[in-house]
Amino acid sequence: MKMKKSLLFCLTGLTLLILGACGSQTASEADCQKFADHVIELGLKDVPEGPAADMAKKMAQDNMGAIVKKCAEEKIDKKALDCSMKAQSLEEVAKCGAPTK
Questions:
Q1: Whose CA is closest to 35, among 79, 69, 73, 81?
Q2: Domain residue spans in the chain?
Q3: What is the pTM of this model?
């Protein structure tokens, strides 16, 4: 249970950092959906299979709508989003030009 909460907290915090970026060219809602899918996939890729992983996946999927909505509302910078989509880990996503404060 602690691992699931940590994963959810990490995904939410990272998403908010990325969504804090701003710029003149912003992502579409379709871009935001792809971003949410990618971040969730990266967050879950190292979770061992089993009941805990199934619950973590469900929690992540339940939060996908909120991630997409926040992305669209905050008008995430397209350049940061493109960088994030190429990232192979959550750590790489965090390095894509998003502010850290």
A1: 81
A2: 25-94
A3: 0.66
